[in-house]
């Protein structure tokens, strides 16, 4: 008759329970669970010490976890732990120790989980006999799980979190994520600090009501002394007694996962790689296997060497496949060597040859790497071993199933695995979705990376007709400045509104507005709308009439000024606006429209550098200095002021090792921390200073998000800050990358009135920004960008006075008769950029 220990050793304890057993396991009156862990197993642990302590519990048939801690290379004690787990598969579970880092965002937690998985993969290979893969699927941490976003760990194949913390009372068991549990609470004891006290604490935990988590530290150094070992034996005796009388069920975390999960935890994908098209023809080997899989209701994914004409979601491609611009690019790639996928490739899933001992992980390339089992390995892997390996793809070629009997046997064995609840089967793309917890930033990045290949911007020279249209557009935009600039100051009106047959000019502006005008004048001269003399005179007049105020002894420009007199209207200082004016001054100097001496003298008339504190920007508003560091304008300011010899810190990370996925993902998380962003100043930076790694990443993501929104809703998106013809007179419209889909679009008024925070208000003012449309056309030439420009041309012309600020998305009508200095200045700059680079 088999003993309890022999049953446990055979692995039966790890089998999933049926529905009746599941109800019994958690029914009222069932014994409370207790999870026992041996902790502190690392480089300092003597292997004989671990072996002696573990044997105390193994000999009593008490299931236990061995917690491997630290990020040091493999140690002899860790190898002993692996040995024990292989020798006692139903009793011993390896658990990964984890100390949470500072980053709480889900993406970075996925990376941490992936690093933990890769660290453990070396251990899984040590002494592994064929057919007995060893994969740690549980994580141990201290502190009640604070700082651990455990659904993120599913991407690395982790199913259970043991979170040690609290007052040493009952442990709480809860399901989370996808086929995951969290078991939190309990107590950790170190018998070296006092054997009797530790035994008493352990006894109290065993006798207490509710679930329990008991962690015992393994002594470091040599084998434990007799008294210490006797203490462990005393704890084991108490646990064994509680198990025998039915008051405690000692169990492992993976057993709890199998009991509590509504679905089998293991996820598998069948991947078929035909060696030729003949294998897919009637009578072909792979075609025959497909028939068997279909008969058994098993999904599969094909690997193809070409993608044209295929349904992308059902396919992967080989790593050496030549990709063209096509909408059929699949999400996954088969890369047997691990070296055939480049940073710029569109795929977000990589299948690699990792073997049964390796788990999936999210890499710093923002891709999910899923290990492959080879079809030739299936014969030596038992069904239990295959399910225990968890979260793999199974690669099958014609050589693996040459006969009809082989194909039938494989399909039936996999179907049995599914039917007994040991594994779920998915197409590769669906397996990836099941493993990766929802992470909007990651999704937006991957979507933009895919579009870079499937639907990229279209380079090439402008058609003659479009060049003529752009010149006509530039002429209309210039009419705003020709008609509405003050003869004395040279400054354009801040806004102009049509009222009946007359125009009302509002003669006030910020330095941001005037910076747009100066850049517009530089562009008008480049396009040929005005000559050098007129451009230079206009720019000089503007700078000559910018007033200077004194704030705390510093000479600085004001927040607002009167454009018809140059008089300051509002005291204060805004570094972003002032920096834009200096960027425009540099553009005028570089274009030869003002002299080097003039530009330097003007720059030195402001004490800009003194407004910075440790490189961080400050504004003066509301009567005091306010830090302005966490702002999407700061990186633009940083680049602009660098040309004047002023160093400014940036809230954005700086690229390290190139413009890659890791940098872009870190950047997007920094952006999310600040809030929504929009076309400006993102593409103003690209127009005036050239693209940076940050502007390129953010531009691609925003461009893709706008097109994706249009593809989903049929409504055009073109977001930026925009003036309005009525209260609240201004809105910021942009994207929050940390919210999914349409939830990410933000429309915010600077006025805090609740009336401007309703869905009805946002719908009424959502608009396609005219200036943003031309910026997108300049930097991302694409049918979508052209559609935006065409709409603005058709709807937003204010004859004789430039372009309206935009077109309302809901009505398709322009902001009525309302134009401004910013819109027309930026349109001129964007057109000049496009003619210069594509004309």
Q: How large is the radius of gyration?
A: 33 Å
| Overall shape | elongated
Instruction: Give the termini distance in whole angstroms.
Output: 88 Å
Helix content: 25-40%
How would you state the average pLDDT, rounded?
89
The tally of helices reads 26
Structural class by SSE content:
alpha/beta
Low-confidence stretches: 1-28, 307-313
**Count of distinct strands:** 34
Tell me the strand percentage band: 15-25%
The major pleated sheet works out as: 10 strands, mixed
Would you give an account of this structure?
There is one protein chain. The protein is an alpha/beta fold and 839 residues long. Helices cover 40% and strands 18% of the residues. It is built from 26 helices and 34 strands. Strands 1, 2, 3, 4, 5, 6, 7, 8, 9 and 10 form a 10-stranded mixed sheet that branches. The chain has a 7-stranded parallel barrel with strand order 11-12-13-14-15-17-18. Strand 16 and strand 17 form a beta hairpin. Helix 15 (511-527) packs antiparallel against helix 16 (532-544) and helix 21 (679-689) packs across helix 22 (693-713). The longest helix has 21 residues, at 464-484. It is elongated, with a radius of gyration of 33 Å. The N and C termini lie far apart (88 Å).
Outline of the structure:
With 839 residues, this protein is an alpha/beta fold. It is 40% helix and 18% strand. The strands form eight sheets. Strands 1, 2, 3, 4, 5, 6, 7, 8, 9 and 10 form a ten-stranded mixed β-sheet that branches. Strands 11-12-13-14-15-17-18 form a seven-stranded parallel beta barrel.
């Amino acid at each position: 008759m088999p003993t309890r220990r022999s049953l446990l050793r055979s692995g039966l304890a790890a089998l999933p329970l049926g529905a009746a057993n599941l109800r019994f396991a958690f029914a009222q009156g069932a014994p409370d669970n207790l999870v026992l862990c041996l902790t502190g197993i690392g480089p300092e642990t003597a292997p004989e010490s671990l072996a002696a302590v573990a044997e105390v519990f193994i000999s009593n048939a008490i299931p236990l976890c061995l917690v491997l801690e630290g990020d040091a290379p493999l140690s002899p004690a860790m190898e002993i732990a692996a040995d024990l787990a292989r020798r006692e598969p139903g009793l011993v579970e390896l658990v990964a120790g984890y100390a949470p880092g500072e980053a709480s965002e889900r993406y970075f937690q996925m990376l941490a989980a992936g690093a933990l998985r890769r660290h453990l993969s070396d251990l899984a290979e040590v002494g592994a006999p064929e057919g007995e893969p060893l994969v740690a699927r549980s994580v141990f941490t201290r502190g009640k799980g604070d700082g651990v976003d455990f659904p993120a760990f599913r991407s690395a194949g982790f199913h259970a979190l043991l979170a040690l913390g609290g007052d040493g009372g009952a442990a709480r068991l809860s399901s989370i994520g996808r086929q995951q549990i969290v078991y939190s609470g309990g107590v950790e004891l170190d018998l070296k600090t006092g054997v009797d006290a530790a035994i008493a604490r352990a006894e109290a935990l065993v006798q207490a009501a509710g679930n329990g988590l008991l962690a015992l530290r393994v002594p470091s150094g040599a084998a434990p002394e007799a008294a210490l070992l006797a203490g462990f034996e005393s704890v084991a005796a108490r646990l064994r007694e509680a198990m025998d009388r039915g008051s405690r069920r000692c169990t492992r975390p993976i057993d709890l996962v199998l009991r509590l999960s509504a679905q089998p935890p293991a996820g598998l994908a069948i991947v078929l790689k035909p060696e030729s098209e003949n294998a897919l023809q009637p009578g072909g080997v792979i075609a025959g296997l497909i028939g068997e899989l279909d008969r058994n209701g098993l999904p599969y994914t094909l690997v193809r060497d070409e993608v044209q004409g295929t349904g992308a979601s059902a396919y992967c491609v080989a790593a050496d496949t030549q990709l063209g611009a096509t909408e059929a690019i699949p999400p996954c790639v088969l890369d047997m060597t691990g070296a055939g996928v480049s940073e710029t490739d569109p795929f977000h899933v990589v299948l690699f040859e990792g073997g049964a001992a390796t788990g999936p992980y999210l890499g710093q390339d923002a891709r999910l790497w899923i290990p492959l089992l080879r079809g030739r390995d299936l014969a030596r892997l038992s069904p239990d071993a295959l399910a225990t390996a968890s979260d793999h793809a199974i690669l099958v070629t014609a050589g693996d199933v040459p006969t009809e009997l082989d194909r039938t046997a494989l399909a039936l064995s996999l179907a049995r695995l599914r039917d007994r609840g040991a594994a779920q089967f998915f197409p590769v793309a669906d397996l990836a979705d099941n493993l990766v917890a929802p992470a909007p930033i990651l999704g937006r990045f991957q979507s933009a990376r895919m579009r870079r290949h499937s639907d990229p911007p279209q380079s090439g020279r402008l058609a003659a007709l479009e060049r003529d249209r752009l010149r006509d557009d530039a002429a209309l935009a210039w009419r705003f400045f020709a008609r509405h600039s003050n003869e004395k100051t040279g400054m354009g009106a801040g806004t102009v509104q049509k009222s009946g047959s007359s125009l009302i000019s509002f003669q006030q502006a910020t330095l941001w507005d005037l910076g747009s005008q100066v850049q517009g004048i530089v562009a008008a001269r480049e396009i040929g709308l005005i000559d050098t003399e007129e451009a230079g005179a206009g720019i000089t007049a503007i700078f000559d009439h910018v007033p200077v105020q004194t704030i705390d002894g510093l000479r600085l420009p004001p927040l607002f000024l009167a454009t018809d007199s140059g008089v300051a209207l509002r005291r204060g200082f805004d570094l972003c606006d002032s920096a834009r004016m200096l960027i425009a001054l540099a553009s005028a100097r570089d274009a030869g429209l003002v002299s080097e001496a003039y530009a330097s003298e003007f720059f030195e008339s402001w004490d800009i550098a003194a407004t910075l504190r440790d490189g961080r920007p400050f504004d003066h508003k509301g009567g005091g200095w306010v830090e302005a560091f966490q702002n999407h304008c700061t990186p633009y300011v940083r680049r602009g002021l660098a040309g004047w010899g002023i160093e400014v810190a940036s809230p954005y990370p700086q690229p390290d090792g190139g413009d890659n996925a890791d940098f872009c993902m870190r950047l997007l998380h920094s952006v999310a921390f600040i809030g929504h962003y929009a076309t400006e100043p993102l593409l103003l930076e690209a127009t005036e200073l050239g693209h940076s790694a940050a502007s390129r990443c953010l531009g691609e993501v925003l461009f893709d998000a706008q097109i994706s929104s249009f593809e989903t809703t049929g409504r055009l998106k073109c977001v930026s800050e925009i003036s309005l013809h009525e209260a609240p007179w201004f809105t910021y419209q942009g994207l929050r990358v940390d919210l999914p889909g349409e939830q990410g679009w933000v429309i915010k008024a600077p006025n805090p009135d609740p009336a401007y925070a309703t869905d009805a208000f946002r719908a009424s003012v959502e608009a396609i920004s005219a200036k943003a449309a031309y910026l997108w056309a300049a930097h991302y030439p694409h049918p979508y960008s052209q559609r935006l420009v065409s709409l603005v041309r058709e709807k937003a012309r204010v004859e004789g006075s430039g372009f309206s600020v935009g077109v309302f998305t809901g009505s398709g009508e322009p902001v009525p008769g309302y134009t401004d200095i910013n819109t027309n200045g930026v349109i001129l700059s964007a057109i000049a950029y496009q003619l210069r680079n594509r004309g």
